[in-house]
Design brief:
The protein is an all-alpha fold and 480 residues long. The chain is built from 26 helices and no strands. Helix 20 runs antiparallel to helix 21. It is elongated. The protein starts with 11 loop residues before the first helix and ends in a 34-residue tail after the last helix.
């Protein structure tokens, strides 16, 4: 959400009250302190403060205005921590001189919010609103802090109140974001549309509406909004990244890669662009290039679980199961409640033949997400490879109750039934699986399971040989 710009108070009262200072130079300094920006304003404020002769609310306003400029300087590319400290010192001085200066609380709250000091920011905004409960700007800023902290209803209440006082495009846009986060899409789009109608030249409004369309999987509208944002601001890296994501999800992987490349030219450290390009390259089956992008993300952020997950998927797809297992294992340590990672760890171990390591991972996935179809299917596969056919059938049954057309579960259950000697039921499951996924036998063969005899002999026959079950393939012993 865009933040309300830092508010600076006029020093008209100062100009009238500062009789101790004389001359055109002093008057110009007071004017520059009140209305100027950057180093010039800081220097002017400092000269007026150092000249003396002022006290109370007049001096407080000087400190507050200088604090605004210090905080703006500290937030720039070349800014430093000491600039922020100077800003806070000026706001503290302003409030010592005039405890009822609401704007000083407001501006100090912005600095605390930017620094991630949520409690201090809320305390300042609350104090400002006790002094001036009609400040739409402060209500809007407090809403941003509530939004960032996940208190969406509090953010919505503040924005409703702000809009009742001052119906601005910024407040409408920000409320649209809250509605989107709450899944209230109709209200969200109404607010975004209204914000754009009031200020059609602000790129961030189209960007935010595009994100809402993307969340709704309306990729065409999302791309159209990102196009508009980029037409207004061709250096908008975030819009390039999200348009790249939308294009990738739409199957336009070449255009997606072009967007991610453009974003990386603007910001070579944009991990989101590297990660997005890796995903697009994965979808293009450019496996080594995808791994290179994921590697770059992980070098910058070793805890980037999504990049590790995607890299593991690539390793698994090219048959490097040990690397895939290593990544999945790391993810489960980074995110111990990630059921998908536990399931993938189970599956990769099962494919590798590490059955004793596989089952506990599947058990944990199902503990975290009871009844998960994929985890049930994975654990059933582990049981099947281990020769525990009753357990395999039980898990396949559970998966198929939830998704009756899951071809892998039908086929696996068919194999388990045949190995138990129930050839009629097994053949029926296998036939149903093939009707859904014609190449399911080849898939299971790649997974290390011998197909039914009908796939191995000519002519094909589904009847069993006398007094034997399907052979269990030789597999690498479990090292544990």
């Amino acid at each position: 959400m865009p933040s309300r710009p830092l508010r600076r108070l006029s020093c008209l009262a100062l100009l009238l009250a500062s009789v101790a200072m004389s001359g055109m130079a002093a008057a110009e300094d007071r004017r520059t302190c009140a209305e100027g920006t950057g180093e010039a304003a800081i220097a002017a404020c400092t000269r007026v403060i150092d000249a003396g002769g002022l006290s109370g609310s007049d001096l407080a306003r000087l400190h507050m205005n200088r604090g605004v400029e210090w905080s703006a300087k500290g937030g720039t590319k070349g800014g430093a921590e000491h600039d922020i400290k100077r800003a806070l010192a000026d706001f503290d001085a302003a409030l010592f001189l005039d405890p009822k200066l609401a704007a000083a609380h407001h501006n100090r709250g912005i600095v605390h919010a930017v620094q991630g000091q949520t409690a201090l920011a809320l305390a300042d905004y609350d104090a400002a609103l006790r002094i001036d409960p009609t400040s739409a700007a402060t209500l809007g800023q407090r809403a941003l802090v509530h939004f960032a902290g996940g208190d969406l209803e509090a953010a919505l209440a503040d924005l409703d109140a702000a809009l009742a006082l001052e119906s601005t495009a910024i407040h409408l846009n920000n409320r649209g974001q809250v509605h989107a986060a709450l899944g209230r899409w109709k209200r969200a789009f109404a607010d975004f549309d209204a914000a754009i109608a009031r200020d059609p030249d602000l790129a961030v409004f189209y960007y935010n509406r595009g994100n809402a369309h993307l969340a709704r999987e309306d990729r065409a509208r999302a791309i159209a909004d990102f196009d508009r944002a980029l037409k207004l601001n061709d250096g908008y890296a975030a819009a390039l990244i999200n348009r790249g994501i939308a294009r990738d999800l739409s199957g336009d992987t070449d255009l997606a890669v072009a967007d991610f490349d453009a974003a990386l030219k603007l910001d070579p450290k944009a991990t989101a662009a590297l990660y997005g390009r890796g995903n697009a390259r994965l979808h293009k089956a450019e496996h080594r290039l995808a791994i290179a992008d994921y590697d770059a993300v992980i070098r910058r952020d070793a805890d980037h679980a999504a990049a590790r997950f995607s890299r593991a998927v690539v390793y698994e797809s090219i048959g490097d199961l040990d690397q895939a297992i290593a990544d999945y294992d790391t993810i489960t340590r980074l995110q111990s409640d990630n059921a998908a990672a536990w399931n993938s760890l189970c599956w990769a171990n099962a494919l590798r033949g590490y059955l004793q390591a596989a089952q506990p991972a599947c058990d944990e996935a199902l503990r975290l997400k009871p009844g998960d179809i994929n985890a049930l299917d994975s654990r059933a596969f582990v049981h099947l490879r281990a020769g525990r056919y009753d357990a395999a059938i039980a898990d396949y049954d559970s998966a198929l109750k939830r998704q009756p057309d899951k071809a892998s579960s039908l086929y696996g259950r068919g194999i388990a039934k045949r190995r138990k000697g129930d050839y009629e039921a097994g053949n029926a499951d296998i036939a149903a699986a093939r009707a859904i996924m014609p190449d399911v036998t080849k898939v299971f063969l790649r997974h290390g399971l011998t197909p039914p005899f009908s796939e191995l002999a000519v002519p094909a026959a589904e009847s069993p040989p006398p007094a034997r079950s399907l052979p269990v393939p030789r597999r690498r012993p479990d090292p544990s």
